[in-house]
Write a structure and sequence with these properties.
alpha+beta; Endonuclease, Chain A; 2 domains; 8-stranded mixed sheet; 7-stranded mixed sheet; 13 helices; 38% helix
Length: 383
């Protein structure tokens, strides 16, 4: 008889960061108390008030003798002035840009969000370092969330993940072929993963694989997704849960910072609604959160449910089967749902004019066909 696979329950369990403002309130004091090391990895970083607060905390840490390493995506940080990090570098801090922008390799972006302090506490989620994330997601600021992690096993994995990406930040040197998933040995040994890393040439997308596995026998599925363009297999898996009598509820963006993704996602509502999936659109602010609660399993982090997150970007998700964390995740979902408007099949059909359908079709074609095709062309150029 095959041995049962251990379930990823982190000890101590993660703490929810219920909004961008909540995350920043926890992250800045952690930086201010850093004593040995800071690993700081984000997709977008702006030279605004929020950026200034974090830059000040990073510079102060470096001045105290803390080893400070900053890794930002070159595209996401392209608005920063050339001398923005001069003070940090003067005090020994290291700053690198992931995949400096070139037309040859522009497709591949580092979409991960991670702050790891003293190898003792980590912060992950969907939020970037910019003013629009500093709010409660209801009265002000984008709706986002994350997790504070103190489990030693996860912290070791997160540190290794950062170090690997930091040392291989310049994709122009063909490092797409060298960035590996350091947990392949653990996976082959039959261990389920808590930290789910993904990216081009890292094998199967761990988040998508784990989510699909969880959906096979799921009874209750609750998902919050800012950009919702799931793959064919994931669409089928979600519909199957509803068709066999389970509940599937989606909170999607009523306001989006990427209208193209919203057009494409709305065009696909019908296939879910006809299967019995309930769809809600979040109303107060731009929705940017990434959350899935499948029965007692929780997923949270940086990955969207779209082709770019599943096959092009580097992403970081956390999975846990902790019952209390799942219960809290359901409460977060319910709070978002309370601020949302339900989209019924009738309401959706009324919205599907000829121009709306055409717009959705072309948006979907660009995001699910052209974008992956361009990325694949660039990937083959490294072979």
């Amino acid at each position: 008889m095959p041995r049962a696979t251990p379930r990823p329950v982190l000890t101590p369990p993660p703490r929810w960061l219920s909004s961008g403002a909540d995350a920043f309130r926890r992250m800045l004091p952690a930086l201010e108390s850093a004593r040995t090391s800071v690993r700081f990895e984000f997709y977008i970083y702006r030279a605004d008030e929020t950026g200034a607060r974090f830059r000040g905390a990073l510079v102060d840490a470096a001045r105290r003798g803390v080893r400070v390493q900053v890794l930002l995506d070159a595209f996401g940080a392209h608005e920063l002035p050339a001398d923005y990090w001069a003070a940090l570098r003067e005090h020994g801090g290291e700053v690198r840009l992931f995949n400096p922008f070139t037309w040859r390799l522009f497709a591949f972006r580092n979409h991960r969000k991670l702050l790891l302090v003293d190898d003792a506490v980590a912060f992950i989620g969907g939020f970037n370092i910019a003013d629009e994330y500093d709010g409660d997601g209801v009265t002000r600021g984008w709706r986002d969330l994350g997790m504070e992690v103190r489990a030693p096993a996860a912290l070791r994995q997160l540190a290794d993940a950062f170090d690997d990406m930091f040392s291989n930040s310049d994709l122009r040197r063909r490092v797409l072929q060298r960035i590996q998933n350091p947990w392949d040995a653990r996976r082959r040994a039959g261990r389920d993963e808590a930290v789910l890393l993904s990216g081009p040439r890292m094998g199967r997308n761990r988040f998508r694989t784990s989510l699909l596995k969880s959906l096979r026998r799921a009874r209750h599925v609750r998902i919050v997704s800012s950009y919702f363009l799931p793959s064919l297999r994931l669409r089928h898996a979600l519909r199957q849960v509803a068709r066999r009598g389970g509940t599937v509820e989606l909170v999607l963006a009523g306001k989006s910072d990427v209208p193209l993704a919203q057009f494409a996602g709305r065009a696909r509502y019908g296939t879910f609604l006809r299967a019995g999936v309930r769809i809600f659109e979040y109303q107060p602010q731009v929705l940017h959160a990434k959350l899935a609660v499948v029965d007692g399993t929780v997923f949270a982090g940086s990955s969207n449910l779209d082709a770019r997150s599943f096959g092009i970007n580097y992403e970081l998700m956390l999975r846990s089967d902790d019952p209390q964390l799942a219960a809290e995740g359901r409460q977060l979902f319910a709070a978002d749902q309370a601020h949302s408007t339900e989209i019924t099949l009738g309401k959706w059909r009324e919205s599907q004019t000829f121009l709306t359908r055409l717009r959705g079709m072309w948006a979907g074609f660009l995001l699910t066909k052209i974008d992956p095709w361009l990325a694949n062309v660039q990937l083959r150029s490294l072979s």
